Amino acid sequence: MPVLRRWQRLMAYAAVGAPVDSINELTLSTEALLRAQESPGTADRLRCRLVGQPLAYAYPVTGQVTGDTTCWGTSHILKMQWIASARDTAGVVESIRWLDDVRSDERPGDAAIDGVYQEAWVALQVGDTAWATGHLDLALAALETSGLNLLRQPEQAAGLVRAMALRVELAVAAGDERTARRWAEPVVALWGEAREAELQEVVVRMREVTGS
Questions:
Q1: Using CA of residue 17, residue 18, residue 22, residue 24, what is the dihedral sign?
Q2: Which pLDDT value is given to residue 107?
Q3: Please, what is the Cα angle at 18 between 51 and 71, to 5 degrees?
Q4: Which of 38, 41, 92, 119 is most solvent-facing, going by the fewest CB within 10 Å?
Q5: Residue 204's CB: how many other CB atoms inside 10 A?
Q6: What is the DSSP letter of 69?
Q7: Contact (CB, 8 A) for 16 and 153
Q8: Residue 126 · residue 89 · CB < 8 Å
Q9: CB atoms within 10 A of CB 103
Q10: Which one, of 197, 173, 196, 199, lies nearest residue 187 by Cα?
Q11: For residues 169 and 202, what is the distance between their CA atoms, to the nearest angstrom?
């Protein structure tokens, strides 16, 4: 239970990407507690979920990735992040093509929005702005088909706001004021009262777009 309590806090912070100091501290303490309270075999089996998964959510703000390759079988995002952190552009491109292939018969809304956000972020690390922009646009246009987990799962609810904020940044860079304003407004509405300084920095940028 002590491990799970730390993991729950870590997941909550990692899902929204703040506060970074708490994410880093809880990552280290969760790993240490896991090693101290579980057998090596059990710790290895749990590490992907209790440490690797939160690191994936926090990757855009911490840059940390899990080096445990056994975790790749549990999450393609963990593998993509590791490849991107190694600056393996060809590997990321291959992963993107794989994603497009496996989802060719799926609706855009079938993919969890928090995963879409992470996939787009990885693509941006290797300069594929066009794919990242299109990937976000498809998912955001399909929110009505995303299902109730969009609201039930905290990581998806947080991922939605982060996806919208990222789309705003891309629109601003492209000079697309209409799209930037379209997604900046709901970010301000949802995170406008956020207490964390890092989240308020996001809100300030969104307010600059909306003029509010």
A1: positive
A2: 83
A3: 20
A4: 41
A5: 10
A6: G
A7: no
A8: yes
A9: 13
A10: 199
A11: 10
- CA proximity to 74, closest of 115, 29, 109, 113: 115
Tokens of 88: 């393996």
Considering only CA atoms, which of 123, 116, 161 is closest in space to residue 139?
A: 116
For 20-54, the pLDDT digits (tens) are 999 999 999 988 888 888 888 888 888 888 888 89
pLDDT of residue 51: 87
Neighbours of 194 (CB within 10 A): 16
Task: Identify the DSSP state of 111.
Answer: S
Residue tagged 């900046």 (tokens): 184
User: What contacts 67, CB < 8 A, 6 or more positions away?
Assistant: 82
Alpha carbon distance 122, 59 (integer Å): 9
Distance separating alpha carbons of residues 19 and 151, to the nearest angstrom:
22
Q: Give whole-number Cα distances, 188 to 116, 123, 171, in Å.
A: 21, 25, 16
Range of 87-96, 108-117, 179-188 with top mean pLDDT: 179-188
Residues ≥6 apart with Cβ < 8 Å to 86: none
Tokens of residue 138, six digits = 């498809």
**CA dist., res. 153 & res. 168, Å (int):** 23
Tens of pLDDT, residue by residue over 86-101, are 889 999 999 999 998 9
What pLDDT does 31 receive? 86
